[in-house]
Design a protein that fits this description.
It is built from 26 helices and 19 strands. The protein is α+β, with helices and mostly antiparallel strands. It has 5 domains: 147 residues; 55 residues, no CATH class; 120 residues, no CATH class; 157 residues, no CATH class; 126 residues, Orthogonal Bundle (Isoleucyl-tRNA Synthetase, Domain 1). The longest helix is centred in the middle third of the chain and has 25 residues.
Length: 697
C-alpha cells in the first residue's frame, strides 16, 4: 500500500470556485482508480486560493493480474452459413493481433459474439496515475477559464507548480505543461518560494511552517475557534454566519483573526445595519453584546500570520469608518421619509415586465394578507397595512442604491419602528422575507401572502422553474410557504381554522392552479424527506390531497411513528389496500353502494362477518380520535383490523356477481364494496396505505 499526494499550484483562484474545482478533481481521479481496482482507503482534500489537490491513503501499488474476455462482432456476422469464420472475424482477429484459431464464441452484451480470452498483467499505480491525473485535470468543469503563455493551455488560472508524490517518489506526470516534482511553495511574502516535500506524510506539517493551512476543514475550524475566543475576550459573541466563514476559508491560505475598533459614534446605528454594512462590504464580523447590541469592535480575518505594527488594523478601521459614515447618512435620510410616501416611488420600480411594478404587487399583497389574516389569528387591518408597506424600503437609499441589498425588509421594519408604526406591523415588515420560528401571526400572514403571490403570478405568466433553472427563486418561495404552512402555523395559533391550500390557490390562480399545487406538493415532499420521513410515507400522506399542510405534517408524524411500532401490520395492510384500490378503480365513488350496511347477518361467510364486526368495533372510537387530530391513537386502533382484512381477502371473492344476474348477489356484492370503502375511508383520513411499500412480508 502507498499514499499519493497531488498539489496543483496556481495563481489565486476566485474563492467561490476553489472547493468545487478541488472536489471535482478528487472525484475524477478516485473514480478512475476505483475502475482500475485501486480504490483508496482514505482521502483528504487540498483546497486553498493558490493550490488544489488531495492526499489518497492506502492505495494498492499495482493491479492484480487478471484474465479478461475481449468481445468482437456478433456471431451472426462472424460466422457464415456453414459455420466458418467470415472476413469480419478475420478482421477482428487481425486488429487484436491474435490468431483466428484462438477465437471462441462468447456471450456479449446483446447476444453471442466472437471473442477470445487473454491474460492481462496488472499495471503499476504510478503508471496509472501518470495517465489518470492529466486526463482528470483536462476534464474538470471550469466555470471560468483563462489561457497563458502562448495560449496553448486552458485552466482556471495559470499553473505554476505541481507536486505528485507516491510515498516519497515523484510520479512522472505533467499538468498543463508543468512537470511534476516535489517542490511546493509557501505563503506569499511570509513563506518560502521553494518548499521541498520529502514524502506525502510531510506535506501538511511542512506547509503549516510556511504559513499555509492546506486542509480547508482545518482552516474553517481555526477561523471559528479564533472568532469565538476573541469575541469572548471582548465580552461578546459573533453571530453565526456559515456563508461568510466559507467565503473567508477560500480567501485565505493561513488565516488569522484580527480585532479592530468601531468608532463609538456609529453605535447609535441599529445593529442590523451596522452588521450588514461591515459584513457585505468588508467581510467583517461585528461583536454583539448580550442583548444583541453591537459592541465597539469588529473581527476581521486576514491572510497573514501577524500585524506587529498594527498597520493592517488601522487600514481596516479607516475603511470601516468610511463605510459606516455612508450607512448612517442613508439611514438618517430614509428614516425621515414616511414609508407610505414611498408607495408612489414603487410605481417606478418594475417587478417584472409582465407583472407590473412593485406598487402593483403591494396592492395585491394588501388584499391577500387581509384574506389570510383570520387563518393565522391576525388582525386583518394590521396584516393589510404591513403587506402594503413591506416593499417600500426598495425605494430607500439604503437598499435602492444596492449598498445593502441584504437589508431588504429589515430596513423597512427599522423605518416602521422609528416612524411609530404598530410593533406587529414593524415586525412583519422586518421579517417577511424569512420569518423565524416565534414570529407573530401578522408576520406569518404577510410572509405567506408574499410567497404565494410570487408563485401564483410567475406561474400565471408561464415562468415555472425548469430543470436547474430558477431565475426568480420560486423553489425557495415555495419552500418558505410550505415551512409556514406545515411547521409554524400551529406555533402561531394552535387550533386555528386552517385555509384549504388547494382552494386558496384555485381562487388566486384561477384555472391554471393545478401545476402550482403540484409544485408545492413536491417542495413539501422534498422538505419532509429531508426530515427523515420515508418516501412512501410521504407519498401516502400526499395522496390524500394538498389541503392542510400542518395537518398533513401531523398525519405524517403519526404514520411514521405507528408504522415503526407495527411494521408487519402495515406491510400486510398496504398489500390489502392495493387490492382494494384495484377493485374500486373505475367504480363510481358515490351512489353505487348503500348508504347503510345491510343488517348484520346479511354478510356471506365468517370472514365477511368478522370484518364487519371488527370495523363496527373500532369505527366510532377511531373517528373520534381522527376528529380530535389524535392520529397516532386512531392508527393504532385501526391497525387492529389487519387480521380481519387478511382473512377477508383470503376467503372472500368480492366481485362474485360482476354481471348482476342475481339481484340478491348484487346487493351482497354492493354491501362488500361499501364495507371496503368505509374501512379504506377511515385509514384515508390519515394516509393512503396503498402507497406504502412493504418492507418485509
Amino acid at each position: 500500500m502507498a499514499d499519493f499526494l497531488l498539489e496543483i499550484g496556481t495563481e489565486e483562484i476566485p474563492s467561490g470556485m476553489v472547493r468545487g474545482l478541488a472536489e471535482d478533481l478528487l472525484d475524477r481521479v478516485t473514480g478512475g482508480l476505483k475502475a482500475a481496482g485501486l480504490a483508496p482507503s482514505g482521502k483528504a482534500l487540498i483546497a486553498a486560493p493558490r493550490r488544489i489537490g488531495f492526499v489518497l491513503d492506502g492505495l494498492p501499488t499495482r493491479q492484480e493480474d487478471r484474465r479478461e474476455t475481449v468481445v468482437g462482432p456478433a456471431l451472426s456476422i462472424a460466422r457464415d452459413a456453414a459455420g466458418a469464420w467470415t472476413k469480419a472475424a478475420e478482421g477482428f482477429a487481425r486488429k487484436q493481433n491474435v490468431d483466428l484459431t484462438a477465437c471462441i464464441e462468447v456471450q456479449g452484451p446483446k447476444g453471442m459474439c466472437i471473442g477470445f480470452e487473454r491474460d492481462v498483467k496488472g499495471r503499476t499505480l504510478a503508471h496509472i496515475l501518470a495517465e489518470a491525473v492529466p486526463a482528470a485535470v483536462d476534464a474538470i468543469y471550469l466555470p471560468k477559464a483563462m489561457k497563458w503563455g502562448a495560449g496553448e493551455y486552458l485552466f482556471v488560472r495559470p499553473v505554476r507548480w505541481v507536486v505528485a508524490l507516491l510515498d516519497g517518489e515523484v510520479v512522472p506526470l505533467a499538468v498543463k505543461g508543468v512537470t511534476a516534482g516535489r517542490a511546493s511553495r509557501g505563503r506569499r511574502i511570509f513563506g518560502s518560494e521553494h518548499v521541498e516535500i520529502p514524502a506525502v506524510k510531510d506535506y501538511f506539517p511542512l506547509l503549516e511552517r510556511e504559513f499555509v493551512v492546506a486542509d480547508p476543514e482545518k482552516r474553517s475550524r481555526g477561523i471559528r475557534a479564533e472568532l469565538a475566543e476573541q469575541a469572548a475576550a471582548l465580552g461578546g459573541r459573533v453571530p453565526s454566519d456559515p456563508e461568510l466563514v466559507e467565503k473567508l476559508v477560500y480567501l485565505c491560505e493561513g488565516p488569522r483573526v484580527l480585532t479592530g475598533g468601531i468608532d463609538p459614534e456609529f453605535l447609535s446605528l441599529p445593529s442590523e445595519i451596522l452588521v450588514a454594512c461591515l459584513r457585505e462590504h468588508q467581510s467583517f464580523f461585528v461583536v454583539l453584546g448580550g442583548q444583541g447590541c453591537a459592541l465597539p469592535y469588529f473581527l476581521a480575518v486576514m491572510d497573514a500570520p501577524a500585524d506587529p505594527k498594527g498597520l493592517v488594523r488601522r487600514g481596516l478601521e479607516n475603511v470601516s469608518r468610511s463605510r459606516l459614515s455612508d450607512a448612517r447618512f442613508f439611514y438618517e435620510h430614509d428614516k425621515a421619509v414616511p414609508l407610505e410616501r414611498r408607495l408612489e416611488e414603487l410605481k417606478g420600480i418594475v417587478y417584472h415586465p409582465k407583472l407590473g411594478t412593485y406598487f402593483d404587487k403591494a396592492v395585491r399583497l394588501e388584499a391577500h394578507a387581509r384574506e389570510l389574516a383570520p387563518y393565522f389569528g391576525a388582525a386583518p387591518a394590521k396584516a393589510a397595512r404591513a403587506a402594503k408597506l413591506c416593499k417600500c424600503d426598495l425605494a430607500s437609499l439604503l437598499v435602492q442604491e444596492k449598498e445593502f441589498t441584504g437589508l431588504q425588509g429589515v430596513a423597512g421594519g427599522l423605518y416602521a419602528e422609528a416612524q411609530g408604526e404598530d410593533p406587529d406591523v414593524a415586525e412583519a415588515i422586518k421579517v417577511h422575507y424569512d420569518p423565524k420560528p416565534g414570529a407573530g401571526p401578522v408576520a406569518m400572514t404577510v410572509s405567506l401572502a408574499d410567497k404565494l403571490d410570487t408563485l401564483v403570478e410567475f406561474f400565471r405568466i408561464g415562468q415555472a422553474p425548469t430543470g436547474s433553472k430558477d431565475p426568480f427563486a420560486l423553489r425557495r418561495a415555495a419552500s418558505g410557504a410550505v415551512a409556514i404552512l406545515s411547521d409554524r402555523f400551529q406555533a402561531v395559533r394552535p387550533g386555528a381554522r386552517r385555509e384549504d391550500l388547494a382552494d386558496l390557490i384555485g381562487r388566486w390562480a384561477g384555472q391554471g392552479s393545478e401545476p402550482l399545487i403540484q409544485f408545492l406538493g413536491e417542495r413539501a415532499r422534498h422538505k419532509w424527506e429531508g426530515e427523515g420521513f420515508a418516501y412512501d410515507e410521504v407519498n401516502a400522506v400526499l395522496a390524500t390531497g394538498l389541503h392542510d399542510l400542518a395537518d398533513s405534517h401531523a398525519r405524517l408524524q403519526a404514520l411514521h411513528g405507528v408504522r415503526n411500532e407495527a411494521a408487519e401490520d402495515f406491510d400486510h395492510l398496504s398489500v390489502a389496500f392495493k387490492r382494494v384500490r384495484n377493485i374500486l378503480k373505475g367504480l363510481p365513488e358515490h351512489g353505487l353502494y348503500p348508504s347503510k350496511f345491510l343488517p348484520e347477518g346479511h354478510q356471506e361467510g365468517d370472514a365477511e362477518r368478522a370484518l364487519y364486526q371488527a370495523y363496527s368495533a373500532v369505527a366510532e372510537e377511531a373517528s373520534r380520535a381522527l376528529d380530535a387530530g389524535d392520529y397516532e391513537s386512531a392508527l393504532r386502533r385501526l391497525s387492529t383490523l389487519r387480521p380481519s382484512v387478511d382473512r377477508f381477502f383470503d376467503d372472500v371473492l368480492v366481485m362474485c356477481d360482476p354481471e348482476g344476474k342475481d339481484p340478491g348477489k348484487t346487493a351482497l356484492q354492493n354491501n362488500r364494496l361499501a364495507l371496503l370503502q368505509r374501512v379504506v375511508g377511515l385509514f384515508n383520513r390519515v394516509a393512503d396505505l396503498s402507497e406504502i411499500v412493504p418492507r418485509e412480508i
